[in-house]
Amino acid sequence: MYNGTESLAIRAGHLTIGGADIPALAKKYGTPLIIYDECGIRKACGEYNAALRKHYGENALAAYAGKAFSVGVMYRILTEMDFGADVVSGGELYTARRAGFDMGRIFYHGNNKTRAELAEGLDYGVGRFVADNFEELKMLEELCSARSTRASVLIRVTPGIEAHTHAYIRTGQIDSKFGMAIETGAALEGVKLALSCPHLDYCGIHCHIGSQIFDTAPFAETVKIMCGFINTVRDICGVETRELNVGGGFGVQYTDEDTPHTPDEYIRVICQALKAALVQYDLPAPRLILEPGRSIVAPYAVTVYTVGTVKSIPGCRTYVAVDGGMTDNPRYILYGAKYTFVVPERADEPKTMTVTVAGRNCESGDLLGEDVPLQQVHPGDLLCTLTTGAYCYSMASNYNRVPKPAVVMVREGEDRLIVRRESLEDLVRNDIF
Ligand code: LLP
Question: For the chain, which domains are there?
Answer without folding.
Answer: 5-37+298-427 (2.40.37.10), 109-292 (3.20.20.10)
